[in-house]
Amino acid sequence: MTSLYDEVQAAPGAGVPTRRVTIKVNGDDRTVDVEPRLLLAHLLRQGLKLTGTHTGCDTSNCGACTILFDGRPIKSCTMLAVQADGHSLETVEGLASASELHPIQEGFKEEHGLHCGFCTPGMMLAAKALLDKNDNPTEDEVRWALSGNLCRCTGYQNIVKSVLWAAEKMRAESN
Amino acid sequence: MYPSRFGYELPKTVEEAVALLDAHGGEAKVLAGGQSLVPMMRLRFAAPEMLIDINGIEALHYNRVDADGTVHIGALCRHEELEDNPAIAKAIPTIAAAAPLVADPIVRTRGTFVGSVCHADPQGDWAATMTALGGHIVAQGPKGKRDIPIADFVIGPFQNTLAFNEIAIEAVIPAPKGVRVGNYLKLERRVGDFATASVAVSLDMKGDTVAYAGIALAGVGGRTINANAAASALVGKKLTAENIASVAAAVAAVAEPRTDHRGSADYKRQIVKTFVERILTGLLNTSQKAA
What we know:
The structure holds two protein chains of two kinds. Chain A has helices spanning 40-47, 103-110, 120-133, 139-145, 157-174; strands spanning 19-25, 28-34, 66-69, 72-75, 88-90. By secondary structure, chain A is α+β, with helices and mostly antiparallel strands. Chain A has a five-stranded mixed beta sheet with strand order 2-1-5-3-4, sandwiched between helices. By secondary structure, chain B is α+β, with helices and mostly antiparallel strands. Chain B has three domains: 7-56, 2-Layer Sandwich (Uridine Diphospho-n-acetylenolpyruvylglucosamine Reductase, domain 2), CATH 3.30.43.10; 58-173, Uridine Diphospho-n-acetylenolpyruvylglucosamine Reductase, domain 3, CATH 3.30.465; 179-290, CO dehydrogenase flavoprotein, C-terminal domain (Enolase-like, domain 1, 2-Layer Sandwich). Chain B: InterPro entries: CO_DH_flav_C (IPR005107), CO_DH_flav_C_dom_sf (IPR036683), Diverse_Substr_Oxidored (IPR051312), FAD-bd_PCMH (IPR016166), FAD-bd_PCMH-like_sf (IPR036318), FAD-bd_PCMH_sub1 (IPR016167), FAD-bd_PCMH_sub2 (IPR016169), Mopterin_DH_FAD-bd (IPR002346).
């Protein structure tokens, strides 16, 4: 069965007008030819094989596709891939180094911040955007920052704890 | 779903963007934040042949307050740039109150104030806010610029009065007649959902007398509800419990709520009345404390 997401290929067919874009993804420049209607989330997933960015809802509600665009969180299903030309993206694949997890990832592990894991990449990037601006958020501020990301498993309690855990660890590391 | 196929242009100036719109004769759409347009294109409610992406026009990316208190919001000013913004909070408290309630925090990093006004969603926070403030939109077309008062701009659900070859480049909120105070209240079942009811109130005060009063509603009708006529009963008067109660009742009467899964029409009308009373009473209490 062909999924809806296979309808537009990251590599378009012959005769379809494309634009060449160069996007910095997790620090590396990637140059690709894209059809204007290709959504950024699907360029990441299909074109660049970075399948950590999830697409959940089709309507910009769920936040599973959240990535950082020049350091600010965006819903990558609601941006065209052509719009990322010349910009810098960070996805969940960019969080961990070869040898160790990012403190936010560690926090989700320590505080059991995920069940099924579908929303987790978006949650972690939204959390990173918060912690990059505010290294000592209150619980309310964490809940506020994550209010554009839906989770259908956890009831959010452990996600919030995970982010607070990460904030504490990141503060300790920077001291 | 995927959008249907379209062409894409990335102009560097407003003039270039206007020329592109003109050349495509009504088949092109302007892409600013894209937080409404892209989902609509995905659902194929919208299927423009050409997208004119104005995100490359850096000259449209600003918000500023003039010395006299006039506020200018450029077409690329994102919602989040109006949050935690001391100059805006001082100049227009209603915008500062509404900004954190627009959509969700991630949508707010991309979506734009002017784009939201142009979209003219009956649920839109900014069309209601602009209506309460009595602002105008600056449109630029092939023959130059013109000012369009908000009441002549948002004329129905998803309907604005831009010509096909015009771009809304700026929203302008006039200088206050005195000290501008106001607030915005929104009831939503969860962040990012359509509002059950929203109320925007802005007053200009000369001492303890109301010099301007604007009220508009979102989510309680098939269009942005302009309740400025009801609000104008306050002009020339002091805020009192009696005035507040009568204006709240008059505003609730012009709401056009419909019963749906967010609540009954009566319930929504009651929310409007309560929110108007709550906002005006809050403003009265604050002014009494200051005096």
